[in-house]
Amino acid sequence: MKSSENDSGAGRPLARRPTRYRLEKKVNGICVLEVVGRLAPSTAQEELTTRVDDLIASGHANFLIDLRGVSYISSTGVGSLIECYHHAERAGGKLKLLNPSQAVRQILTVSKLDSVFDIWTDEEAAIRSFGTTGTETAHPEEDDPPTLVPEAVKRPSATTSAPATAAASASKASPAAPETPEVKPAPAAPQPRIVKAADAPR
User: Fold this and answer.
1) Model-level pTM greater than 0.90?
2) For 39-72, what is each residue's pLDDT tens digit?
C-alpha cells in the first residue's frame, strides 16, 4: 500500500511544519518577505496578503517575496501572490519574486504567470531593479545649497579702496567730456610806421 503525504508509513500522520512568513529585512523601503513551507492558505487565513497589507498601511509599497523555501504552492497560494501584486501596484509600488523553488516555478510556468511576475535569482540585482542603490544605510538629506548672487549685485571686495571704487563708479555713471582743442591766439596786425619830417626825403 502506498503511503500518502499525511502517512508516515507507521500508521501515524506526518506533522506538517507550519508555514512561516518572515519579514527578513527592509532595504531602502523595499520589504524582503521570506516564505518557508507550504504556500496553501485557506480562505480564512491569507497571512501573506495580511502581511503585505499591513506594510502598505505603514507606508511601504515595494516588496520582494523570497520563495526559495516553499515546498508546495496551491491555487489559493498563487491567488494570494496575485492579490499581493495588485495591492502593491495600487499603492504605487511593485512586487517581485525572488528564487522561486522548483515547485513554485513549475506552477508559474504552467499558468503562464512567469510572464506576469518579475522573477529574479539574485537578491542584490532584484533590489537594484526597484531603482534604489541597494544599501541599507539611509543617506541624510543634503544641506540647502548656497544662494548664488549675480555678479551685477555683488558688493566690492574689501581689498578695493574707497576712493578707487568711487572713481570707478563716477566714471561708469557719466560719460567722459570730449577734449576741447587748444585755441592759439591770432597774430597781431602790423603797426603802421610813423615817418617823421626829419626823415622824409628832400
Assistant:
1) no
2) 988 755 578 999 999 999 999 999 999 999 999 9
SS3 of the chain: CCCCCCECCCCCECCCCCCEEEEEEEECCEEEEEEEEEECCCCCCCHHHHHHHHHHHCCCCEEEEEEEEEEEECHHHHHHHHHHHHHHHHCCCCEEEECCCHHHHHHHHHCCHHHCCEEECCHHHHHHCCCCCCCCCCCCCCCCCCCCCCHHHCCCCCCCCHHHHHHHHHHHHCCCCCCCCCCCCCCCCCCCCCCCHHHCCC
Using CA atoms, how far apart are residues 106 and 38, in angstroms rounded to an integer? Answer: 15
What does the alpha-carbon distance between residue 116 and residue 68 come to, in Å, rounded to a whole number? 19
Which residues lie across from 72 on neighbouring strands? 38
Are 24 and 34 a contacting pair, CB within 8 Å? yes
Q: pLDDT tens digits, residue range 94-137?
A: 999 999 999 999 999 999 999 999 999 999 999 999 985 434 43
Model pLDDT for residues 136-154, shown as the tens digit of each residue: 433 333 334 444 444 444 4
Q: How far apart are CA 151 and CA 48, in angstroms?
A: 61
